[in-house]
Design brief:
This protein is α+β, with helices and mostly antiparallel strands. The protein has eight helices and ten strands. The protein is 36% helix and 27% strand. The strands form two sheets. Strands 5, 6, 7, 8, 9 and 10 form a six-stranded antiparallel β-sheet that branches. A hairpin with a 3-residue loop joins strand 5 and strand 6. The radius of gyration is 18 Å and the shape is globular. The model has no long low-confidence stretch (mean pLDDT 96).
Length: 231
Amino acid sequence: MSRVSEIFAKVKKERRKFLLEPEAKTVCNEYKIPITEFKIAKNEAEAIKFAKQIGYPVVLKIVSPNIIHKSDVGGVMVNLKTAKEIRDAYRQILKNVKKHKADAKIVGILVQEMAPKSTEVIVGATKDPQFGPAIMFGLGGIFVEVLKDVSFRVAPITEDEALEMITEVKAYPLLKGYRNIPPTDIDAIVNILLNTSKLVMEHQEIKELDFNPILVYEKGAKTVDARIILE
Ligand code: ADP
Ligand code: MG
């Protein structure tokens, strides 16, 4: 069984509906969807050790099968630059989570590479009862959430369709660069769309997924948060 199938089998066996972020990012990695490097710490000393290996600054995040929206419960701390900041953030996250959900099962604390700020895009997939999986694209923040400036295609998509999805959103000129915003790596986004299409076609048990945000650079891109929800 492939690594991805193993993860899905484990999630089903444990009667969970969504993958933990490290599981979702392992799936991304298997499908060549670029992610931020990560490790799961079980205690403060381990978190500090991993931060040194990954390189400062880092981000700490709660890993719990009971928490899908991590920052809503104070479960995400970004831009940590020293061992002391990690220790404090580690404790604060556990405290915040316990306050919101006293009985939350804690798997560990995710230590991950802090991706530098850049233009944010979102790639998603949903399942239509008639057409099957469809792929969604948009720019992050207000573009998707307020303006609903998104594009959709039924999967599987071709390279031409992936490019169309990117160029047809109204915010597309921002990806080409604008004033102080540098141009972004459109090929990297095309590849993420194609690989996401491949993933949902090969794993029909996926009900929906969203990679939000993906930070796109002049060269390359990085998925900072990945959610995968099963049927
Ligand atoms: P949530 O479950 O609340 O959606 P996220 O993992 O998306 O949690 O984290 C919340 C926000 O923190 C992200 O939208 C992003 O702005 C920032 N963030 C999270 N991880 C990173 C990272 N590795 N590098 C840079 N920023 C990050
Ligand atoms: Mg998120």
